[in-house]
Amino acid sequence: MLLIIMIYCIVSELNSYDGSSPRITLLRPFVYFGQTYNYIYVNQNGHLTFNAAWNSYTPQRFPMHGPRDFIAPFWTDLDNRGNGHVYYNQYTTGSVLQQATQDINTHFPGLNFNANWVFVATWYEVAYYPNSGTRTTVQAVLISGGQYTFVLMNYGIIASTTRTVQAGYDTINSTHHYTIPGSFSSTATGPNSNFRLGSNVNVPGRWAFRTDHGSRGCTFNGKFRYKGYRLLLSASCNITAVPLSEVYLYQS
């Protein structure tokens, strides 16, 4: 049975075709793979940027080796002129921080994490272009506290489409990047969407990443490897990865 993920609270709204929010001043700095940002933009076509708004509606495969840091829970051509809304808000107190603290400590045990800031962007029941009437809900949640930052991507109902979709994140020159399995494939959308049915934290419909210096896993042979695997020779998984049960452990 599919687990139901609590969608984080949402307030401010963006309604414009191929548009973006105004520059949003963050109430706390957000560290994204070593780069500290004080501003963010919520872009209508399913992505977030930091240095400038970006209206791109044609997804590209990661890694892009491009000039921008980029968070893309659902990069495709969206159109909310007929139905759907894009919401965003940030929090420094209250129940949203409590929920974020609980979620991060569940997904990343051992950090003793306490959230002090959360930013939420939600594409709620948005349609695909052109004004298709379909309804898709996805969400990006940025969380920080102390030395740690994280991004959660939550997926609700994903309407079917023949359009390509890229989901994941990328960085300047692609020094860090991750593609959620199913991107640029028929399993990106519809009732069998891997975004909604899959997970890297054992919660279907949720994908969680540590972003202050790197996530706790990577893709190897098309599968996400994290807890329970050792990467040999290359932290980027370019060489090999084997289960811990197959790794010889020296006697302590």
From TrEMBL:
Keywords: Signal. InterPro entries: Alpha-tectorin (IPR052749), NIDO_dom (IPR003886). Pfam families: NIDO. GO terms for biological process: cell-matrix adhesion. Residues 73-214 form the NIDO domain. SMART domains: NIDO (SM00539). Residues 1-16 form the signal peptide. This is NIDO domain-containing protein. It comes from Lates calcarifer (Barramundi).
